[in-house]
Structures are given as C-alpha cells and as structure tokens.
Input
Amino acid sequence: MNAGSASAAVRRPIRIGLIASILTGVLLLLCCTGGTAAFFLSGLGGEAEDGESLAGWGCGPVRPVDITGELPRFAEYGDTQIRNAAIIIKVGQDMGVPSRGWVIALATAMQESALRNLANSGVPESLALPHEGVGADHDSLGLFQQRPGWGSVAERMNPAYTARKFYEKLVKVRSWQRRPLTVVAQQVQISAYPDAYAKHEELASTIVDALAGGAARTVEINGKAVCNAAERGEIAASGWTAPIPGDVGSGFRTTERPSHNGVDIGAAKGTDIRAAAAGRVLVARCDPDDRGRQSCDVDGYPGKGGCGWFVDMLHAGGYITRYCHMVTRPRVARDQIVAAGEVIGQVGSSGNSSGPHLHFEVHRRNDRSSRGAIDPVPFMRQRGAPLRAAE
Output
C-alpha cells in the first residue's frame, strides 16, 4: 500500500546521589512507573528536573500539583512563572475541570502575561500589591489581564482567584473540549488578538504533562482521566485524537520504502476518518495520479500514483496532517475550520493503494513537502492519541 505523494503543489542532572547498590531499583522505577518515577527522582537529586524531560516520562496516574514543592525547570520560563502555572493547574484540579481546561488556561495566561502576575501603571492600587511586573494595557491586571468586571483590584492580583474566574467562564463555552483552543480562549477573554493563543498550546501541554503526571495525554471518560485513549472521537487534553482506530501496517520511511512519508492504518472501507486536531482545511480534493488523471471515484492500485481523495489540515503550532485514499469526496472544504474529532471523510482505496486503509502523515513547520514530514507514531503517542500498533 503506497500513498505516493500528493500532486506538485503538495510535494513542494538528574544527579542521583545514591550508591550503586540501588541502581537497579532506580532503573526499575524509570521503566515501569512513568511520570511518578520522574517526580520521585527529581526530589532525590536535590534540584528541579528539566521540564521537557519530565514531560516525556509517560502518562498516569494524574498527579495533584504541589504548588509549594520543587517544580521542574523550563527554558522558556523562570521559577516564579512555573509556580504560577502550577497554581493555575491546581485550581483547575480543585474545581474538577478536565485537564483540557488546564491546557487552555495555561496557554491563555502565557499569551496575556507570560505567566507573570502583572500590576498596571494606570491602576496605582495594584502597584502596592505583590506583583512580578508592570503592564499598561487599559486597566487589565494579573495573570489573565482581567478588567474590572472580573473582580476588585486585590482579587485580580490574586493568581488563584483569577484562575478560578477563568475556569468558571470556560466551562460555560459550548463544546469547549473539542473546539480550537484559540476560539475557546477568545470566548472567555474577548481579546483584541484572538489568534495569538494558539502558538502556546504545545508548550502548555508539555507543562501540564510535567507538573501533573502526563495529564495532557489523558481523555476524560466517565469522569476519569484515562491515559493514551484518544480515538473514536475522544479528545486528549493535548487537543489530539487518533484519526481512525486500527493497526499500523506499513511504517514511516522504512528500509523497504524510504520515501513513505507517513504510516498506513488498516480499516474497513467506509470507516469514519476524524480530524486529528482542530484546525483549518488547506486542501480537500482528488490528487491526480502519475498520468495526471483525476480518477478518485474508483479503487486504485499499486503503481497508480497519487493520494486519491485526500485532505490536508493546518493545526496550532504549524503542524499539518494529511489523510489519503478516501472512498469519496471529503466532507470538508478548503479553509473550513474543523473541530478535533470531526469526521472529514471515510476510508477507501483511491489513488496509489492496494486495499482499504488510511495513509496518515504529520508535517511540522507549516511544510507540506517531504522535508516537513515526521514519524506520526511517536508524535501521536506523545499527545495521548497513539496509533495502536505503535505501542
């Protein structure tokens, strides 16, 4: 099964102060307990763990955030800012807000204040209160730059209060767990720059993972946070879901197929294909085969060339996903905004294909060409939406 490429437009320390006799036990913890082991070892080292590394330990069980303890380091933010991030997450946990809300809240505060509790030069009362910088945006204050309608000056300068007010409005937004982060954050904040929130989504997910035991990789199912289960329309807190349930067959750039820029996931013809994350449709059309024919309404065959009916979508962070070999014309159109998990087409065998399957690609840095393609298997696993045969 070969997707081929789309047409010409598309081709374009921890320092462990322990004696050697317990090293085996430490390695066992690393292997088997995921995020919990990382948290334990960072305490032994006497130094804060690197946040990027900690976020990669694994998922679960979701850990309550300790806002007074040692917190991981991030190159992008200082200790005080990460402490504020911990407060935001802790408030969300205490309120019972699903972890997707923590990601949205963090990304919003990252944009509004760079996770700093800001006073305002135009609000003299705020300057007498504890703060971590001075802003001058109208009469906005605090981590979320809230205006007087959100509360008194003292309340808006209280990080826990401002986080609670944010969550209270967030959970009232219709379908907030599925819609694009930037759309949801805008409905809460009413910002002059609504598109700015999206660029913080990936780092916000990483911080949530590091501080709360991989929580951005969880899905809320029957009131419980379940790790690595985002498929069939369930959306992980990271905002991602597997496009179809199924087993990965042909992998990414294998020895046998070094130019295979995605993975093939087997499924029955007609199986719903879902958007892996919220985003905007870049392309939704029939890809010409190697002879220039746009014959996507019939099954293809090996050597025919082309993706058949296919869709490319742009997501937050400059990621692009591609879905090839659909059975009929996609359900979406160019420039359409699509929610995570929304059905965009059905599995087929059009184009360069030997049988029904989904050819799925992930690209980074807004690059739809082969240069931008990355292996979807680790990418989706890290976001709590693993392609099942990859585990």
User: Anything to note?
Assistant: Residues 280 and 337 are 5 Å apart (CA to CA). The first strand starts at residue 119 and ends at 120. The radius of gyration is 23 Å. Confidence is low (pLDDT under 50) at residues 7-46.
